[in-house]
Protein backbone atom coordinates (compact mmCIF):
# COMPACT_ATOMS: atom_id res chain seq x y z
CA UNK A 1 0.00 0.00 0.00
CA UNK A 2 2.77 2.46 0.90
CA UNK A 3 4.56 1.66 -2.35
CA UNK A 4 1.47 2.64 -4.39
CA UNK A 5 1.02 5.83 -2.41
CA UNK A 6 4.64 6.77 -3.07
CA UNK A 7 4.26 6.08 -6.81
CA UNK A 8 1.08 8.19 -7.02
CA UNK A 9 2.75 11.08 -5.17
CA UNK A 10 5.85 10.98 -7.38
CA UNK A 11 3.70 10.95 -10.52
CA UNK A 12 1.66 13.88 -9.24
CA UNK A 13 4.83 15.89 -8.56
CA UNK A 14 6.15 15.20 -12.08
CA UNK A 15 2.86 16.22 -13.68
CA UNK A 16 2.56 19.42 -11.65
CA UNK A 17 6.15 20.51 -12.22
CA UNK A 18 5.84 19.94 -15.95
CA UNK A 19 2.82 22.28 -15.99
CA UNK A 20 4.83 25.03 -14.30
CA UNK A 21 7.75 24.65 -16.70
CA UNK A 22 5.42 24.78 -19.70
CA UNK A 23 3.72 27.97 -18.50
CA UNK A 24 6.85 30.03 -17.85
CA UNK A 25 8.99 31.08 -20.77
CA UNK A 26 12.64 32.02 -20.43
CA UNK A 27 12.98 33.45 -23.93
CA UNK A 28 12.02 36.97 -24.88
CA UNK A 29 8.51 36.88 -26.40
CA UNK A 30 9.10 40.14 -28.32
CA UNK A 31 10.23 38.60 -31.59
CA UNK A 32 9.05 41.24 -34.09
CA UNK A 33 12.46 42.93 -34.20
CA UNK A 34 16.10 42.15 -34.88
CA UNK A 35 17.86 41.12 -31.64
CA UNK A 36 20.80 43.46 -32.39
CA UNK A 37 18.77 46.67 -32.66
CA UNK A 38 17.21 48.62 -29.80
CA UNK A 39 13.43 48.64 -29.55
CA UNK A 40 10.88 50.61 -27.54
CA UNK A 41 7.93 48.61 -26.19
CA UNK A 42 4.78 50.34 -24.97
CA UNK A 43 2.49 48.19 -22.84
CA UNK A 44 -1.00 49.60 -23.24
CA UNK A 45 -4.38 48.71 -21.76
CA UNK A 46 -7.17 49.54 -24.19
CA UNK A 47 -9.75 48.89 -21.45
CA UNK A 48 -8.21 51.45 -19.09
CA UNK A 49 -10.82 54.13 -18.31
CA UNK A 50 -8.07 56.70 -17.63
CA UNK A 51 -6.80 57.26 -21.17
CA UNK A 52 -4.99 60.46 -20.17
CA UNK A 53 -2.11 58.44 -18.73
CA UNK A 54 -1.61 56.60 -22.00
CA UNK A 55 -2.08 59.77 -24.05
CA UNK A 56 1.03 61.25 -22.42
CA UNK A 57 3.10 58.27 -23.55
CA UNK A 58 1.69 58.30 -27.08
CA UNK A 59 2.13 62.08 -27.39
CA UNK A 60 5.77 61.89 -26.26
CA UNK A 61 6.55 59.02 -28.64
CA UNK A 62 4.85 60.78 -31.55
CA UNK A 63 6.71 64.02 -30.86
CA UNK A 64 10.10 62.31 -30.71
CA UNK A 65 9.38 60.21 -33.79
CA UNK A 66 8.35 63.27 -35.78
CA UNK A 67 11.39 65.33 -34.69
CA UNK A 68 13.93 62.49 -34.90
CA UNK A 69 12.58 59.85 -37.31
CA UNK A 70 16.01 58.33 -38.01
CA UNK A 71 17.22 58.24 -34.40
CA UNK A 72 14.19 56.66 -32.76
CA UNK A 73 14.21 52.88 -32.37
CA UNK A 74 11.38 50.70 -33.58
CA UNK A 75 8.19 50.98 -31.51
CA UNK A 76 6.17 47.90 -30.58
CA UNK A 77 2.82 48.29 -28.84
CA UNK A 78 1.73 45.40 -26.63
CA UNK A 79 -1.83 45.17 -25.34
CA UNK A 80 -2.53 44.11 -21.76
CA UNK A 81 -4.26 41.00 -23.10
CA UNK A 82 -0.93 39.62 -24.38
CA UNK A 83 -0.21 37.88 -21.08
CA UNK A 84 2.97 36.09 -22.19
CA UNK A 85 4.69 39.43 -22.83
CA UNK A 86 3.17 41.16 -19.80
CA UNK A 87 4.33 38.36 -17.48
CA UNK A 88 7.78 38.01 -19.07
CA UNK A 89 8.56 41.68 -18.41
CA UNK A 90 6.69 41.73 -15.07
CA UNK A 91 4.45 44.62 -16.11
CA UNK A 92 2.26 45.55 -13.13
CA UNK A 93 1.03 49.01 -14.19
CA UNK A 94 -0.30 50.37 -17.45
CA UNK A 95 0.95 52.17 -19.35
CA UNK A 96 4.55 50.97 -19.15
CA UNK A 97 7.31 51.74 -21.58
CA UNK A 98 10.46 49.64 -21.87
CA UNK A 99 13.50 50.46 -23.95
CA UNK A 100 15.23 47.20 -24.80
CA UNK A 101 18.70 46.60 -26.11
CA UNK A 102 18.65 42.87 -26.79
CA UNK A 103 17.45 41.36 -23.52
CA UNK A 104 18.66 44.32 -21.43
CA UNK A 105 16.15 46.91 -20.23
CA UNK A 106 17.81 50.33 -20.52
CA UNK A 107 14.74 52.31 -19.40
CA UNK A 108 11.49 51.45 -17.65
CA UNK A 109 8.70 53.99 -17.10
CA UNK A 110 5.47 52.89 -15.42
CA UNK A 111 2.11 54.43 -14.68
CA UNK A 112 1.40 58.14 -14.45
CA UNK A 113 4.11 60.33 -15.98
CA UNK A 114 3.67 63.69 -17.65
CA UNK A 115 4.65 64.14 -21.27
CA UNK A 116 7.67 66.34 -20.48
CA UNK A 117 9.17 63.76 -18.10
CA UNK A 118 8.73 61.02 -20.68
CA UNK A 119 10.30 63.22 -23.37
CA UNK A 120 13.29 64.07 -21.16
CA UNK A 121 13.97 60.47 -20.16
CA UNK A 122 13.65 59.11 -23.70
CA UNK A 123 15.67 61.92 -25.28
CA UNK A 124 18.39 61.43 -22.67
CA UNK A 125 18.52 57.71 -23.33
CA UNK A 126 18.62 58.12 -27.11
CA UNK A 127 21.00 61.11 -26.85
CA UNK A 128 18.66 63.47 -28.69
CA UNK A 129 19.03 67.25 -28.54
CA UNK A 130 15.42 67.88 -27.53
CA UNK A 131 14.09 71.42 -27.36
CA UNK A 132 11.08 71.68 -25.04
CA UNK A 133 8.68 74.55 -24.99
From TrEMBL:
InterPro entries reported for this sequence: Thioredoxin-like_sf (IPR036249)
Superkingdom of origin organism: Bacteria
Record-linked PROSITE patterns: PROKAR_LIPOPROTEIN
Xref: Gene3D superfamilies: Glutaredoxin
Leader sequence residues: 1-22
Keywords: Signal
Entry protein name: Small peptidoglycan-associated lipoprotein
Taxon lineage: Bacteria, Bacillati, Bacillota, Bacilli, Bacillales
Amino acid sequence: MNKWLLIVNVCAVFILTSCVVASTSTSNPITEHDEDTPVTVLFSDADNPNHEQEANYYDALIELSSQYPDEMPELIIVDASEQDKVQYFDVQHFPTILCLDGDDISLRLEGMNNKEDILMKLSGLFQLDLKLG
